[in-house]
Amino acid sequence: MMGQQSGIQEQLLFCFSLENHVPKDHLLRGIHRLLDLGDLRQQLFGFYSPMGRPSIDPELMIRMLICGLDLDDPVPDHSTFSKNRHGRFRESQAFRLLFETVLQRCMAEGLVKGEGFATDASIIKADAQRQHRVEGSETVDWGDPEQASRPVREYLTALEEANDPQESARTLSLTDPAATWTAAPGGPAFFAYCTNYLIDLEAGIILDVEASTVNKAAEAKATRTMIDRVEDKFDLKPEHLVGDTNYGTATMFGWLVDEKDIEPHVPVFEKSERTDGTFGRSDFTFDAENNRYICPAGKFLKTAWRSKKKNPYRYRASLLDCQSCPLKSQCCPNMNHRQIDRSPHESARDVARAITKTDAYKQSRKERKKVEMLFAHLKRILRVDKLRLRGFSGAHDEFLLAATAQNLRRMAKRLAINGPAPQLIPA
């Protein structure tokens, strides 16, 4: 016989267990187990007053940002996060400590090999509207710095320290003046920062992260900073570095090859090759023993004694040789004689050119996708395609937290932790 519900009676009390609703093999359980915040209290101890009411547990706030919150845990007021982010967390370098603690765990688990690193940068939109900007020709009255917002105060302090006259010539945001006015190909311009990653190629673990302005020189500088910091902190230096053409400058090659003894698996950024059908610099052979170039006709290009002090790396052919040369129309049709400027780091560029012809370089080109995949995950899964905090300090904080979460996720998935699942609700 078919039954019939006699009536609807609302249930007044519910017994809910988070343990019963989260699968035993859920990724958050592995992250929860791997996140060790044992050193956090010691790092923050000097930034809390010994008197007064007990504060919100800093470990609770960090876990809220990374793993989430238990159902029974009290939710702190949003101002608590703001005060700690802009105060003791930033002053104590708590987010940097958190990132390095997770990285050390990755290294202890054998996920970092240390033989090959890859570097790249990705543009992240700033929390600044396009309409609230001033052009470089306009004068900005920031008013009393003490009454200005935190991003403006930080910008004015950095501007005073840098004393860069070109800084006032660029387009500025009135809410986040440190952000860069940039544009993607085919799209409208916007304000943004760059997040720079340095990863180990073994398992795609992020070794360091740095915020920078949006330009090639700043990205290369950020990479040098990260390589030095990883070496100083963890005594870890790669045998080779993988990067794209943005890192293929002569200065970068000189630093990698001559100073750091790191093989650059980076395409050479060539400006000396010509597109008009005339000879490029690659058509000339450099004779290092005699410090001269040999042209396709067999003549010599040497450094002129008159210009050695002004530019010791400029090589010039003889006017007589060029005027009587049958190849002049293919070499210097619009000049009396041919001249070549050689970079002081040209030998390092030659090393990079030779590496591009090896099988190891071809493999590096494939492995570089690991850092690109991390940026795709950062924007599409973690939704960090636009910043919520302003200023370089805010960008640093968000980029560090995001990289920490990515390392925890990668470690939990690679280790595939088995055994008893950790309780998500404290006993």
Automatic annotation (TrEMBL):
User: For the Transposase InsH N-terminal domain, which residue ranges apply?
Assistant: 17-66
Chain ranges of the Transposase DDE domain: 294-412
Q: Which InterPro entries match?
A: Tnp_DDE_dom, Transposase_InsH_N
Q: What is an example of a Pfam family matching this protein?
A: DDE_Tnp_1_6
**Coiled coil start-end:** none
Task: Give the PANTHER family listed for this entry.
Answer: TRANSPOSASE (PTHR33408)
Protein name as catalogued: Transposase
Q: What is the lineage of its organism?
A: Bacteria, Pseudomonadati, Pseudomonadota, Gammaproteobacteria, Methylococcales
